[in-house]
Write a structure and sequence with these properties.
mainly alpha, Chorismate Mutase Domain, subunit A
Length: 96
């Protein structure tokens, strides 16, 4: 890699790091909301809502296309996020 491109790469990576930090703040906020939802659930079988998952993924697909983002990328990100939070809920569910 040329020195000029190396400088460009470092700048881009610095911006990616800033974006990652912003994303972490959003994940924290989402986790707080998931905890609030989890407190409302009375049974462990309420954790997975397939209709809601389908709705979310459909909406993300439409918004991705509208914003010219490859929907395969956003679908994979959201699926992983959804299932990560489902596992989180399962591990943190406290039966009333």
């Amino acid at each position: 890699m040329s020195p000029k491109n190396l400088i460009k790469l470092k700048k881009i990576r610095k911006n990616l790091d800033k974006l990652d930090n912003s994303f972490l703040k959003l994940v924290k906020k989402r986790t707080i909301l998931v905890n609030q939802v989890l407190k409302l659930k009375e049974n462990k079988n309420q954790i997975v809502d397939n209709k809601r998952i389908k709705f979310i993924l459909d909406q993300i697909r439409k918004k991705s296309i509208k914003n010219k983002i490859d929907p395969r990328i956003t679908n994979r990100i959201w699926k992983n996020m959804i299932w990560s939070y489902i596992n989180y809920e399962r591990n943190n569910f406290k039966k009333k």
